[in-house]
Amino acid sequence: MNIVITSIGKDLIEENEREARRLRSIYDEAGMKVYEFLGGPGSGKTSVIERLLEFMLQEYRPEEVGYIGGDVATSLDAERIARYGVRHVQINTGGICHLEAHHIETALMFLDKGKGLKVLIIENVGNLICPFNFPLGAHARVLVADVTEGEDKFVKHPLSTRVSDIIVINKVDLAPVMGVNVERMVKDARKLNPKAPIILASARTGKGIRELYEALKAAPFPEEEEEEVIVLR
Ligand SMILES: Nc1nc2c(ncn2[C@@H]2O[C@H](COP(=O)(O)OP(=O)(O)OP(=O)(O)O)[C@@H](O)[C@H]2O)c(=O)[nH]1
Ligand SMILES: [Mg+2]
After folding, report:
1. Ligand 1: distance of its center to the CA of 43 in Å?
2. Angle at Cα 153 formed by Cα 148 and Cα 154, nearest 5°?
3. How far is Cα 28 from Cα 135, in angstroms, rounded to an integer?
4. Which atom of ligand 1 is nearest to the CA of 203?
5. Is 210 helix (H, G, I), strand (E, B) or coil?
6. Can you say how many angstroms the Cα of residue 67 is from the centroid of all Cα atoms in its chain?
7. For residue 197, how many other CB atoms are within 10 A of its CB?
8. Using CA atoms, how far apart are residues 149 and 158, in angstroms rounded to an integer?
């Protein structure tokens, strides 16, 4: 038997979506590009961001780049990012498994209301489920999955795969040791999300990071058109 649960706190989600739309207009008015990184715990989100910063900082001054990190506890990720000299703030969510739009609004206060920022990177709490239901108004949502999580991650998390604008399959340097069929992962992701660029990457070797940076520059991506429903009476 397979029990399927089809609804989660609709009010909460709708309220967050309203707030996320408001955030998007704040970003746009400020002329700031916002990229959100999501994925399971330890998939390599911070490591990919660190590598990405090496490219970004060839184009932007450190004070033009901001980072907001979400984690249940510690400021370890923000401390890693601080080494790059960019503006940073860590949000500790306590027991909550995702960031919400109003958290970002608060965090922006600590980044001088986002003044002077050209790029803002948000790293969500390591979780492959909840964060995907709570958009933060970003111009691109980047799913970072990795080869050690198991080949079946995309099919087991179809919503996460569908709503992402860019899909990174990280740690490909470990694919041979793990005996993982990366092609199968690409095929599964492609079936669920026909549009998103799928990037094979390794934050360890630097593979795919330039490609990711180029893909981010193309954001924002056209919204998925709502399917028109015609009711015949
Ligand atoms: N071999 C290899 N290791 C990697 C790669 N990317 C990240 N790692 C390692 O994976 C571990 C987790 O990386 P993080 O960047 O902290 O992962 P994260 O997704 O930010 O983790 P949370 O924020 O805790 O969810 C670290 O030990 C990294 O050094 C990669 O491409 N290849
Ligand atoms: Mg991290």
Report:
1. 5
2. 135
3. 16
4. 31
5. helix
6. 12
7. 17
8. 15
- Give me the CATH number covering residue 77: 3.40.50.300
The secondary structure of 106-167 as a DSSP string is HHHHTTGGGTT-SEEEEE--SBSSGGGGS----SEEEEEEEGGG-TTHHHH-HHHHHT-SEE
pLDDT digits (tens, 9 = 90+) for 166-206: 999 999 999 999 999 999 999 999 999 999 999 999 999 99
Q: Alpha helices of 32-100 — where are they, by DSSP H?
A: 45-59, 76-82
Domain that holds residue 91: 13-217
Which string of b and e fits 207-216 if b means at least 16 CB within 10 Å? Answer: bbbeebbebb
Ligand 1 pocket by C-beta < 6 Å: which residues? 39, 41-47, 77, 126, 170-171, 173-174, 202-204
Note the pLDDT tens digit of each residue in 29-73: 999 999 999 999 999 999 999 999 999 999 999 999 999 999 999
For the CA of 39, the closest atom of ligand 1 is 19
Q: Is residue 6 part of a domain?
A: no
Please state the domain count of the chain.
Answer: 1
Pocket test for ligand 1, best of 47, 83, 99 (most atoms within 8 A of CB): 47
Quick: pLDDT tens for 135-172: 999 999 999 999 999 999 999 999 999 999 999 999 99
Contact in structure between 108 and 102 (CB atoms under 8 Å): no
Q: What is the pTM of this model?
A: 0.93
